[in-house]
């Protein structure tokens, strides 16, 4: 004789079945990926559409109005492909440099807070002038970290050799000089954005408000820009960069 099922057993079975069917976390995770794929088509999807469009344009007997419309679509797809590739690169760099930016942001923020407190308690005018200059430099550094061009390889403000107190070998001085010039070029661009009002003069307030309201943002990094400053000495001149922080000119695009 088969065992009889009680009402409690039936209720437990129904409850466990409903949990399996509706997992809110799994459902949310799936919806997030579906929304992401629908709003940001991948590079391969756009490339496939480009191939179809070019095959259509290659036909000799294509009607004039269809050809005009297809050429317009081709230009739109080429622009979409460029944006998709830039977005893909930005996401990769965001993941790659998240950790180093986090630690540098902490270091710069702590220095900024100390400088502000010292400035508030300073009485000598020369000390105030010096501390005001240091405070401005720290704010430029903080904006550098927060608003570094997204599609450009991140150049650390504090390279490994600087953090460890090591000296660069003479053979690496040329690469170190180039990297230092690139770093100062981005800092100069960041400072110009602050002067124009496109970036906040007090970026520490942006951190307090969870990146603020988004009203002040840097303009796009110039296409193919290799801004090099010779008037401002690099704070890390002569220090060799490792591959993790080094700028690869072939990988640079506008953000």
TrEMBL record:
Bias (Acidic residues)? 240-255
The record's subcellular locations are: Nucleus, Nucleolus
Pfam families for the chain: Efg1 (PF10153)
List, as start-end ranges, the regions of compositional bias called Basic and acidic residues: 1-12, 175-199
Spans annotated as Disordered: 1-44, 165-255
**Keyword entries, A-Z:** Coiled coil, Nucleus, rRNA processing
Residue stretches of biased makeup (Basic residues): 22-32
Give GO terms for biological process. maturation of SSU-rRNA from tricistronic rRNA transcript (SSU-rRNA, 5.8S rRNA, LSU-rRNA)
Report the InterPro entries cross-referenced here: Efg1, EFG1_rRNA-proc
Chain segments annotated as coiled-coil in the UniProt record: 67-125
Q: GO cellular component terms? A: nucleolus; preribosome, small subunit precursor
Alphabetized PANTHER family for the sequence? RRNA-PROCESSING PROTEIN EFG1 (PTHR33911:SF1)
Similarity field: Belongs to the EFG1 family.
Protein name listed in UniProt: rRNA-processing protein EFG1
Task: Give the classification, highest ranks.
Answer: Eukaryota, Fungi, Dikarya, Basidiomycota, Agaricomycotina
């Amino acid at each position: 004789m088969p065992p009889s099922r009680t009402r409690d057993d039936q209720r437990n079975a129904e409850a466990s079945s409903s949990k399996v069917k509706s997992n809110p976390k799994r459902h949310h995770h799936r919806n997030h990926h579906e929304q992401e794929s629908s709003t940001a088509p991948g590079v391969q999807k756009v490339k496939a559409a480009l191939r179809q469009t070019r095959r259509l344009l290659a036909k000799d007997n294509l009607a004039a109005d269809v050809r005009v419309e297809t050429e317009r679509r081709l230009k739109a797809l080429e622009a979409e492909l460029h944006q998709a590739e830039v977005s893909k690169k930005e996401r990769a760099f965001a993941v790659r440099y998240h950790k180093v930016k986090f630690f540098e942001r902490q270091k710069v923020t702590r220095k900024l807070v100390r400088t502000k407190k010292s400035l508030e308690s300073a009485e000598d005018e020369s000390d105030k002038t010096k501390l005001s200059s240091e405070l401005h430099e720290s704010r430029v550094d903080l904006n550098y970290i927060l608003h570094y061009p997204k599609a450009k390889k991140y150049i650390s403000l504090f390279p490994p050799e600087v953090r460890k107190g090591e000296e660069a070998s003479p053979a690496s001085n040329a690469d170190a000089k180039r990297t230092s010039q690139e770093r100062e070029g981005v800092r100069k661009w960041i400072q110009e954005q602050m002067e124009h009002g496109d970036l906040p003069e007090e970026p520490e307030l942006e951190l307090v408000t969870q990146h603020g309201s988004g009203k002040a943002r840097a303009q796009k990094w110039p296409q193919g820009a290799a801004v090099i400053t010779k008037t401002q000495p690099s704070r890390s001149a002569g220090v060799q960069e490792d591959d993790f922080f080094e700028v690869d000119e072939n990988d640079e695009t506008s953000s």
